[in-house]
Amino acid sequence: AEAAELRARLRAVRHTVLVLSGKGGVGKSTFSALLAHGLAADETKQVALLDIDICGPSIPKIMGLEGEQVHQSGSGWSPVYVEENLGVMSVGFLLSSPDDAVIWRGPKKNGLIKQFLRDVDWGEVDYLIVDTPPGTSDEHLSIVQYLSATHIDGAVIVTTPQEVSLQDVRKEINFCRKVKLPIIGVVENMSGFVCPKCKNESQIFPPTTGGAEKMCQNLSVSLLGKVPLDPQIGKSCDSGQSFLAEAPESPATLSYRNIIQRIQEYCEQHHLQEEKIM
Amino acid sequence: TPAERANLAGVRHIVLVLSGKGGVGKSTLSTELALALRQAGKRVGILDVDLCGPSIPRMLRVQDSAVHQCDSGWVPVFVGQDKAIALMSIGFLLERPDDAVVWRGPKKNALIKQFVTDVAWGELDFLIVDTPPGTSDEHISTVEALRPHQLLGAVLVTTPQ
């Protein structure tokens, strides 16, 4: 009966993309937010961003929605809308103060994630983006389990070039394979820094073992792209603005846009194949 | 239990390295702190309770080490230039380093409790405990297991943003 409830709620979702890492602090939330903004630039598309990082929900701040509250209506919880076609839900909206720690064990976290999926009234959605916390634990198992009521197009895995990140990301790739979650591809963040003054490129996180490129080759997954460091990215996140809109000329923006397009193409192609089968 | 107390009885100070946020440098700091304390002549141990993303073994170049048990429990891996820093990490228990530890909370809690009380640390001046990001099972269980012992306090790591 529960599965049927979830299926009903998620029936109107066309594409679902999970943003994962395994490693913390590599830019999952940043990427999820920009993916959502990028997809919502097409006003004909309805985009939903779900933040299931219960201990460290970054999405409200990154989307400029800190302090917003969630409203309940007859049809369920209402997401908080950034644009008419971009709705957001996060545990951050349920906290009375942004500094409140959510110190919950696994089962309680799972309960909230299920509630998000079951009770949020997303309406008709073209893209549901799910931002996850680092790790391979309760939240990840639960989201894959609950979303099996609909279908997940795939996962985008975010990393930085250093081996300390890659070693956690390889585990995440193995997690995806274990739970049969398709991998759309890997994004390498913080991939080099170009000095705005002297234009020299520095490797702030040197890819001592070949970076994401080598890892993707070895594990036969797609490298969606590399995004360079740009101090404006962190600033935009802190101020809740879309980096893509604030710095349209940045090489990082160009990288993000290419990656977003590749993800879109993957989802659309996937849909076409499914329709063919049906 | 007496056995549980014994393994931490010889540890003078326990320091937790926490953040909440991932990727800010907890493991890096834990490692550097341990190395610096060792250089200052202290007896040091590191406990890596990041079950999903154990970074410390690689940072100390012992990612291929195996661990053994003795009568009092797990024998830590000895690292550092003079092999005098005692390290325990779940990284050592994985058959293959790319294996994901995909466990729910209760299973993680059981292992952490075992890690905390079943490692034969011996006499240490400092035990540095590296944690994963968040405020969840690992953190609750670690603090609960360490509370009866000499828990000095927590160092919190962040970045400026």
From TrEMBL, chain A:
<dbReference type="GO" id="GO:0046872">
    <property type="term" value="F:metal ion binding"/>
</dbReference>
<keyword id="KW-0004">4Fe-4S</keyword>
<dbReference type="GO" id="GO:0016226">
    <property type="term" value="P:iron-sulfur cluster assembly"/>
</dbReference>
<dbReference type="GO" id="GO:0005829">
    <property type="term" value="C:cytosol"/>
</dbReference>
<dbReference type="InterPro" id="IPR003593">
    <property type="entry name" value="AAA+_ATPase"/>
</dbReference>
<dbReference type="InterPro" id="IPR000808">
    <property type="entry name" value="Mrp-like_CS"/>
</dbReference>
<keyword id="KW-0067">ATP-binding</keyword>
<dbReference type="InterPro" id="IPR019591">
    <property type="entry name" value="Mrp/NBP35_ATP-bd"/>
</dbReference>
<dbReference type="InterPro" id="IPR027417">
    <property type="entry name" value="P-loop_NTPase"/>
</dbReference>
<protein>
    <submittedName>
        <fullName>NUP1A factor</fullName>
    </submittedName>
</protein>
<dbReference type="InterPro" id="IPR033756">
    <property type="entry name" value="YlxH/NBP35"/>
</dbReference>
<dbReference type="GO" id="GO:0140663">
    <property type="term" value="F:ATP-dependent FeS chaperone activity"/>
</dbReference>
<dbReference type="GO" id="GO:0005634">
    <property type="term" value="C:nucleus"/>
</dbReference>
<dbReference type="GO" id="GO:0051539">
    <property type="term" value="F:4 iron, 4 sulfur cluster binding"/>
</dbReference>
<keyword id="KW-0547">Nucleotide-binding</keyword>
<keyword id="KW-0411">Iron-sulfur</keyword>
<dbReference type="GO" id="GO:0005524">
    <property type="term" value="F:ATP binding"/>
</dbReference>
<dbReference type="Pfam" id="PF10609">
    <property type="entry name" value="ParA"/>
</dbReference>
<keyword id="KW-0963">Cytoplasm</keyword>
<feature type="domain" description="AAA+ ATPase">
    <location>
        <begin position="14"/>
        <end position="185"/>
    </location>
</feature>
<keyword id="KW-0408">Iron</keyword>
<comment type="function">
    <text>Component of the cytosolic iron-sulfur (Fe/S) protein assembly (CIA) machinery. Required for maturation of extramitochondrial Fe-S proteins. The NUBP1-NUBP2 heterotetramer forms a Fe-S scaffold complex, mediating the de novo assembly of an Fe-S cluster and its transfer to target apoproteins. Implicated in the regulation of centrosome duplication. Negatively regulates cilium formation and structure.</text>
</comment>
TrEMBL record, chain B:
<dbReference type="GO" id="GO:0005829">
    <property type="term" value="C:cytosol"/>
</dbReference>
<dbReference type="InterPro" id="IPR000808">
    <property type="entry name" value="Mrp-like_CS"/>
</dbReference>
<keyword id="KW-0004">4Fe-4S</keyword>
<keyword id="KW-0479">Metal-binding</keyword>
<dbReference type="GO" id="GO:0016226">
    <property type="term" value="P:iron-sulfur cluster assembly"/>
</dbReference>
<dbReference type="InterPro" id="IPR027417">
    <property type="entry name" value="P-loop_NTPase"/>
</dbReference>
<dbReference type="GO" id="GO:0005524">
    <property type="term" value="F:ATP binding"/>
</dbReference>
<keyword id="KW-0411">Iron-sulfur</keyword>
<keyword id="KW-0067">ATP-binding</keyword>
<keyword id="KW-0408">Iron</keyword>
<dbReference type="GO" id="GO:0046872">
    <property type="term" value="F:metal ion binding"/>
</dbReference>
<dbReference type="InterPro" id="IPR033756">
    <property type="entry name" value="YlxH/NBP35"/>
</dbReference>
<dbReference type="InterPro" id="IPR019591">
    <property type="entry name" value="Mrp/NBP35_ATP-bd"/>
</dbReference>
<dbReference type="GO" id="GO:0140663">
    <property type="term" value="F:ATP-dependent FeS chaperone activity"/>
</dbReference>
<protein>
    <submittedName>
        <fullName>NUBP2 factor</fullName>
    </submittedName>
</protein>
<dbReference type="GO" id="GO:0051539">
    <property type="term" value="F:4 iron, 4 sulfur cluster binding"/>
</dbReference>
<keyword id="KW-0547">Nucleotide-binding</keyword>
<dbReference type="Pfam" id="PF10609">
    <property type="entry name" value="ParA"/>
</dbReference>
